[in-house]
Design a protein that fits this description.
Elements: H1 3-14, H2 32-49, H3 56-71, H4 78-115, H5 121-145, H6 151-157, H7 159-165, H8 167-186, H9 191-213
Length: 214
Amino acid sequence: MGKVERAARRAARSGAGPTKDAPAANPGATAAFALLGEVLLAGILVAAFGVALVTLPAALAAGIRHLRRFVRAEGSPFSAFWRDFVRALPAGLAVGAAALAIAAVLAVDIVLAGSGALPGGELVAGAGWVIAALAAGALLMASAAWNPVDGWAAALRGLPAAVSEDPAGAAYTVVAACFVGLAGWMLIPLVVPALGCAALAAVSIPTRRRKRTA
C-alpha cells in the first residue's frame, strides 16, 4: 500500500477527506490515546471547578459538553469549557445545593441505620444507598442534558422522559455515577479520572440509543 493510499485512508477515517463510506459519527474519538488524554483533562477540569461541591453540576455540564465537542471533532478549547461553566453556574448552584441537601439527609440516615439506632437498620441503609445511587445518576443525566438555551429547568424536567425512553441507558448512567463514588472510596485521587470517565459515559450513552433506534 502506497503512502498516498495510506494518507487517503487516514483522512477518510477522520472525516477530513473524501470517502466512499459515510464519515465516522464521532471522528474525534478515533484516536484512542488522544481520547484518553481528553477524558483525563475533562476529569481534571470537572474536579477543579466542582471542588466546592455546589459547583459540581455546572462543572459536570461543562465537562460533558467539552468531551462532546471533542469526540465530534468540533474543537474543544478551554475557553468553550469556561463559557459553558459560567452559563451553567447560576442555576447550577441551586441544583448543587439541593443535591448536597439530599446527600446530607441520606448520609445521616445511613449512619444512623448502621449504628443500630433505627429499627430495620439494614433495610434502611440499603434503601439509602439505592436512593443515593439513583440521585447521582439523575444528576449526571441532567448535567448531560443541560444546554445554554434551555437551562437546568428543562434538563431536570426531561429526566422522566429520558428514563422511559431508554431505561437501560439510565441504568448505565447510574452505574457510571456510582463508579465515581467507588473510586473515591478506594482512593481519593481516583475521583479525577473517574469523573472524566463518567463524563464520557454521559456523552456515549445517548449515542448508543440513537444507533439502536436508527
